């Protein structure tokens, strides 16, 4: 029986590899003995992305936030697309909040009066995380010009304080040193939020597009 089980497992793994699947394609989640994805640190489940990539589910809004452990110093590396800085998908794959779903948009991210201000961690928490995350990414610029950014923004249902959803985003190319945070990703997030709330795209599609590449998210969803 054990030999049969091992043979079955080998066939299953071979099938997955032929299909192009790997642990990385599961958003950093590992598979249990039953084949069910298990959550990474501080997560509870996995949410299948539009392109098959799973997005981790974080703890969601908390009454009290604590400083989250960050990746090891120097272990994360920026990418650049169209001249813009992108996160390291191994360190910052994104994480969504279980409190926001397609079914409750009207009472969460799309509600009148706003949603994000009541769930945002305090700067006493994020300030410490930002310094640690800067070390993880090897960021040596002026922290005041870099944003401690939610990869999946709060207005798109991103988890508020899961380390997998936060990264030190450098300033755009040509940014004047000392002029504070100002980047091109924010308007993209706002346009995606508007499209989700107007029913032009699904919440899942918007989340998947932003974790794949925020510089192409609008074009991918035909919103450019």
Descriptors:
single chain; 224 residues; alpha+beta; 12% strand; two-stranded antiparallel sheet
Structural notes for this entry:
- This protein is 26% helix and 12% strand.
- It has a three-stranded mixed sheet with strand order 3-4-7, covered by helices on one side. It has a two-stranded antiparallel sheet with strand order 1-2.
- Strand 3 and strand 4 (54-57) form a beta hairpin.
- The protein is built from five helices and nine strands.
- The model is unreliable at 1-50 (pLDDT under 50).
- The radius of gyration is 18 Å and the shape is globular.
- With 224 residues, the protein is an alpha+beta fold.
Number of helices: 5
Distance between the termini: 56 Å
Arithmetic mean of pLDDT: 81
- The total strand number stands at 9
Low-confidence stretches: 1-50
**Share of helix, binned:** 25-40%
What fraction of the residues are assigned to beta strands by DSSP? 5-15%
User: Judging from the principal axes of the Cα atoms, what is the shape?
Assistant: globular
Q: How are strands sequenced across the largest beta sheet?
A: 3-4-7
Q: What profile does the largest beta sheet have?
A: 3 strands, mixed
Structural class: alpha+beta
Q: Give the H and E element order.
A: HEEEEEEEHEEHHH
Radius of gyration (CA) equals 18 Å
């Amino acid at each position: 029986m054990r030999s049969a089980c091992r043979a079955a497992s080998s066939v299953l793994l071979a099938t997955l590899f032929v299909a192009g699947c790997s642990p990385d394609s599961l958003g950093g989640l590992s598979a249990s003995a039953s084949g069910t994805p298990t959550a990474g640190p501080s997560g509870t489940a996995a949410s299948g992305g539009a392109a098959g990539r799973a997005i981790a589910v974080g703890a969601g809004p908390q009454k009290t936030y604590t400083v989250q452990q960050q990746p090891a110093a120097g272990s994360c590396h920026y990418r650049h697309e169209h001249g813009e800085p992108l996160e390291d998908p191994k360190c910052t794959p994104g994480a969504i909040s279980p409190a926001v779903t397609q079914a409750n948009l009207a009472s969460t991210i799309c509600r009148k009066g706003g949603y994000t201000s009541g769930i945002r961690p305090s700067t006493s928490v994020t300030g410490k995380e930002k310094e640690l995350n800067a070390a993880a990414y090897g960021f040596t610029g002026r922290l005041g010009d870099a944003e401690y950014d939610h990869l999946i923004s709060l207005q798109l249902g991103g988890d508020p304080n899961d380390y997998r959803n936060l990264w030190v985003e450098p300033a755009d190319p040509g940014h004047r040193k000392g002029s504070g945070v100002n980047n091109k990703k924010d308007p993209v997030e706002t346009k995606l939020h508007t499209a989700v709330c107007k029913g032009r795209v699904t919440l899942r599609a918007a989340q998947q597009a932003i974790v794949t590449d925020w510089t192409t998210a609008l074009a991918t969803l035909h919103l450019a």
